[in-house]
Design goal:
Distance between the termini of chain B: 32 Å
CATH class of the largest domain in chain B: Alpha Beta
CATH architecture of the largest domain in chain B: 3-Layer(bba) Sandwich
Largest interface: A-B, 57 and 60 residues
Number of strands of chain B: 25
Oligomer: heterodimer
Mean pLDDT of chain B: 93
Shape of chain A: globular
Strand content of chain A: under 5%
Low-confidence stretches of chain A: 19-27
Radius of gyration of chain A: 17 Å
Distance between the termini of chain A: 23 Å
CATH topology of the largest domain in chain A: Cytochrome Bc1 Complex, Chain D, domain 2
CATH architecture of the largest domain in chain A: Orthogonal Bundle
Number of strands of chain A: 0
Largest sheet of chain A: none
Radius of gyration of chain B: 23 Å
Shape of chain B: globular
CATH superfamily of the largest domain in chain A: Cytochrome c-like domain
CATH class of the largest domain in chain A: Mainly Alpha
């Protein structure tokens, strides 16, 4: 499964590279790259945020990216600023930015974390989260968790738990199960685990 | 991924193609190395230098900057409150050197647009195929009687470029007696960092609230409205008693006589349009214009540099591009994020032209955060496109705007954290 995905990504990136050699005349409006470059002041060069809380978006699955942008545009997420920004773009432009960021390598940066807590988080992740957030939550078909900025993960989980963001399929059940295992420590443990990854 | 069809794929990839079409073998195609000289190592200049090298490492890029390191003015209001040090805002140029940018410590004093050459104070000249000028702001000293460069350096700092004057203003605030009076004179439009004077008042209030709770801060303003006004007033009301008899901050707009005319630096008295104001600490942010090299190189029309908004090429001289605060980008504010965004459009345009291509359609973003007080952050955002018929940069309709009024404490708190992330990522995108 994991190898298939890696292969899928390799093929996709190769396809992108080949298409990059086509003449520019197929363009109308700003290019996907030009659109994506405007994000860097907050999300880092090519989407690798240097923190401490703005999320990294490099390597993000294109479908997850487009869904997130649409949710922001429709005021369906507990946004601070992204709802205002997302309203400027068409579906087509979301897709162009999605492909740009999907083809970027995610650079991770060290974050202060509690090693013992992170170890407990690793076990919780393996049991409850790994099925969707594969490879310890590295860029894949679900949202990137590995190395994601910890305050951002806290905000996101707060929003899920306080009914301010719609749970993806099955996620609420999984989070409930993790909390049943480790109580109040479950989410901090998971967040410390993700923050520990490099 | 399933709903992303092949046509989309081509358009998405076209983004790379816009720049990449002939970039595969640029040095073979062109023979000679193309040279870009960048004047000014602030946000506009540094970002342009980095992105030109990042997108096409065959181009030789030389950056000429007077100072050995960069100190950001954004976030420097936090130095005034004691939340951070000036050192935490200071960064070297080694990151740019790693991209292969040649960083020269010197001051550009003139540009010969015919010979395509930049002259420096150090007596050197640098030939270019394209020259990027990003000099930031200069001050219109002649507009306030009694206020000049010397007074600013010693007694009444403007601190509108971060550096020794930021430190001076901080020391003055620390030395101010309890119950002291701070005066901030805000500049007329357009000026660098539109929400800055009001964030400054907020940060000083945050310091005084803890250390000098009877202090008063008066903002004298030649305008009747200011950036993020509603949100500032909400924050000031919540945090600093604004609107009550005990308010720490008072704002005097144009209608109330906020326009200043004269300073007596010995008594720290300002003669404003209607009455006099005397302070213990006085901060005057003077009216602004483009930085000196823009005037020396004949790039201005009035106070600022007119540019073609698709490329940021000067409308006065070919092959010279003017970015950031010094350019007239009309609807875009003079902000760090705007300069960063413009620099990438300009970098792509220069590379496209080197390769005989028409520069693509530009897109710009501005975001700007202000920290009004503890756990109280606010922001403004806008996405812009080009109207090429009128050569104007226009916000995309029904998008952007400021943080919502009366947002939850949690949202306000998150915006403080995001303000600090914004700072780190802008610095990273320009220098690392």
């Amino acid at each position: 499964m994991q190898r298939d995905d890696t292969m899928k990504k390799k093929v996709r990136n190769l396809f992108l590279a080949v298409l990059a050699l086509l003449p520019a005349s197929v363009l109308a409006g700003p290019s996907g790259e030009a659109l994506s470059f405007t994000c860097a002041g907050c999300h880092g060069t090519d989407g690798s945020s240097v923190g401490p809380s703005m999320p990294a978006i490099a390597g993000m699955d294109p479908e997850v990216f487009v869904d997130a942008m649409k949710a922001y545009r429709n005021d369906q997420r507990n946004a601070t600023i992204m709802n205002r920004i997302a309203k400027a773009y068409s579906d087509e432009q979301f897709k162009e930015m999605a492909w740009f960021f999907a083809s970027q390598k995610l650079h991770l940066f060290p974050q202060a974390h509690d090693v013992a807590l992170a170890e407990r988080g690793f076990k919780l992740h393996e049991k409850h989260c790994e099925k969707c957030h594969e490879n310890g939550g590295r860029p894949g078909d679900a949202g990137t968790l590995a190395g994601q900025w910890m305050p951002y993960l806290e905000y996101t989980m707060d929003d899920f738990l306080n009914g301010k963001r719609k749970w993806p399929r099955k996620m609420q059940r999984k989070v409930d199960a993790a909390i049943a295992d480790e109580g109040q420590d479950a989410l901090p443990a998971l967040i410390h685990y993700y923050g520990s990854q490099q | 991924m399933t709903d992303i069809n092949r046509r989309t794929f081509i358009r998405a990839a076209g983004g790379v193609a816009a720049l990449g079409a002939t970039l595969g073998f640029p040095s073979l195609a062109l023979g000679a190395t193309r040279r870009v000289v960048v004047i000014g190592g602030g946000v506009g200049g540094a970002t342009a230098a980095k992105y030109i090298r990042k997108l096409d490492a065959s181009i030789a890029v030389t950056l000429i900057e007077t100072k050995p390191s960069y100190t950001s003015c954004f976030m420097s209001n936090e130095v005034l409150s004691g939340e951070r040090t000036l050192e935490s805002l200071t960064f070297g140029y080694d990151g740019l050197r790693r991209y292969g940018v040649e960083v020269i410590r010197d001051t550009a004093v003139g540009i010969d647009p015919e010979k395509k050459s930049v002259k420096t104070a150090g007596g050197h000249s640098f030939d270019y195929d394209a020259c990027v000028v990003s000099p930031g702001i200069g001050f219109k000293w002649e507009t306030i009687e009694g206020y000049d460069e010397e007074v600013a350096a010693e007694t009444v700092p403007h601190a509108w470029n971060a550096g020794p004057q930021t430190t001076l203003l901080r020391r003055q605030l620390e030395a101010m007696p309890e119950g002291g009076h701070v005066i901030i004179a805000a500049p007329p439009n357009p000026f660098k960092c539109p929400p800055g004077p009001y964030e400054r008042a907020s940060q000083i209030a945050m310091y005084c609230k803890h250390h000098k709770p009877r202090a008063k801060i008066t903002i004298l303003d030649p305008k009747d409205a200011f950036s993020k006004q509603g949100l500032y007033i909400e924050g000031w009301t919540k945090l600093y008693g604004y609107g009550t008899d005990n308010s720490m901050i008072e704002w005097v707009g144009a209608a109330g006589g906020g326009t200043i005319e004269e300073l007596d630096p010995t008594t720290l008295t300002i003669q404003a349009e209607i009455e006099e104001f005397q302070g213990d600490v006085v901060n005057i942010i003077p009216p602004q214009k483009a930085g000196p090299i823009a005037f020396a190189a004949d790039l201005v029309d009035g106070d600022w540099c007119p540019v073609d908004k698709r490329t940021f090429e000067s409308q006065r001289h070919k092959d010279i591009y003017v970015l950031g605060d010094a350019s007239s980008a009309a609807k875009m504010p003079k902000s760090a994020y705007a300069a960063n965004s413009q620099a990438k459009v300009c970098a792509a345009a220069i590379i496209a032209r080197f390769n005989g291509l028409e520069p693509g359609d530009p897109t710009f973003v501005n975001t700007c955060y202000s920290v009004v007080g503890e756990d109280f952050g606010i922001s403004v955002a806008a996405v812009y496109g080009l109207n090429s018929h009128t050569n104007t940069i226009q916000p995309i309709p029904n998008s952007g705007g400021v943080s919502p009024a009366n947002a939850s404490p949690e949202i306000r708190k998150r915006e403080v954290s995001y303000a600090h992330s914004w700072f780190k990522n802008v610095i990273n995108d320009m220098l690392e």
